[in-house]
Amino acid sequence: MELRTDNIEVREKVKQIFTEYLTLRKHRKTPERYAILNMIYSIDGHFDIESLYVLMEETARFRVSRATLYNTLILLMDARLVIKHQFGTTSQYEKSYDQETHHHMICTQCGKVTEFQDEQLKRDIEGKKLPRFRQTHYSLYIYGMCTRCQRTLSRKLTINKRKK
Amino acid sequence: MELRTDNIEVREKVKQIFTEYLTLRKHRKTPERYAILNMIYSIDGHFDIESLYVLMEETARFRVSRATLYNTLILLMDARLVIKHQFGTTSQYEKSYDQETHHHMICTQCGKVTEFQDEQLKRDIEGKKLPRFRQTHYSLYIYGMCTRCQRTLSRKLTINKRKK
DNA sequence: GTCAGTGCAAACTTTTTGCAACTAC
DNA sequence: GTAGTTGCAAAAAGTTTGCACTGAC
Question: Which nucleotides of C are covered by protein (CB under 7 A)?
Fold first, then answer.
């Protein structure tokens, strides 16, 4: 996995936000927590616990246990610095501060997830007035079939029909 | 869980769709599969595998194994008769034929999921032209905090600030 | 009669939990 | 010094798989 090194300001900023969060909630400011946050903000795109674990082990000063990763991710989600997706069986996470909101297209055939941006759609969704609810963020998953799988499938079905 | 008995036409229709699907794909038309489909269309709202299993055991002519439930749900999803949600750790399913598309508000604090409908939003999302992708359906999850949790939290934070 | 589908249990994967050791405060 | 946090390993929860048996075709 390729890591970012060009976003020092963002990493400083999220560190600061996290510190405020930890202070306010009376949680401890452990080196593990900051190392995890920093690693997450070096990753572009989605990651799961296992790959984060391996990455930490390989590159970070701190080797942290899986349990600590799970614990810290809960805090980071609560602090609105990380969001969680559940596409397949494994939970996927991604950094959320200073990120463009994006939407997801998921092919139900091959499982491929593609991201796309759409400002209009974003405004449509974020602009909704919701009853008794304060919106913080959202996830939109559009399911269907990518062109590649459409071709494969229609070929297969044509054969089945012929066999009848 | 309360079961529906007033939707016989819908159940007939989905049975027919499923039959066509099974024929086209050269799958067998087993009684288990129809019993599962019928049970699912008697359930209003979300359900998980475990509750479906218990429900089948209690009320249906057929006792089916969990493995068969998993297998059949894959077929039903492929046939577009059921959709799957992954809110928490357990997968949630729901019938999708003849259903109003609805959106979900999820409280990140207490985990409560509330459904709501919004025709305009539905049109906005379904109307999107997507590159190399044929849209079949979508899921929109809006995260945030319900009024109840907002109150609880702000009370807690006020106390913490005072203690400083 | 054949082989896809089923039930069962074991295996596997991901996440949570209990507890002793550690360390931020 | 104390209690929140960590690491480890065991447990739990959810899903998948292997295999012998069954029944749809």
Answer: 4-9, 13-18, 23-25
- Name beta bridge partners: A105: A114, A142
Instruction: Give the model's pLDDT for residue B109.
Output: 82
The pLDDT tens digits of the residues spanning B24-55 come to: 999 999 999 999 999 999 999 999 999 999 99
Q: What is d(CA B49, CA B64) in angstroms, rounded to the nearest whole number?
A: 12
Contact assignment for A142 to B144 by CB distance below 8 Å: no
Beta bridge partners of B113: B106
pLDDT band at B73 (very low <50, low <70, confident <90, very high): very high
Question: Domains in chain A, start-ordered, CATH in brackets?
Answer: 1-99 (1.10.10.10), 101-164 (3.30.1490.190)
Q: For residue A30, give both structure tokens.
A: 């452990």
Global pTM reads 0.87
pLDDT value at residue A161: 54
Strand D closer than 7 A to residue B50 Cβ = yes
Separation of alpha carbons B134 and A142, rounded Å? 10
Determine contact, residues A142/B138, Cβ cutoff 8 Å. yes
What value does the mean pLDDT of chain B take?
A: 91
- Specify the amino acid at residue B152: T
- Test A136 with B144 for CB contact under 8 angstroms: yes
pLDDT tens digits along A96-139: 998 888 999 999 888 888 999 999 999 999 999 999 999 999 99
Cβ–Cβ of B134/A128 closer than 8 Å? no
CA angle A101, A110, B122 (to 5 degrees): 45
Strand D within 7 A of A72 CB: yes
Give the H/E segment covering residue A133.
strand A133-146
Q: How far apart are CA B35 and CA B108, in angstroms?
A: 36
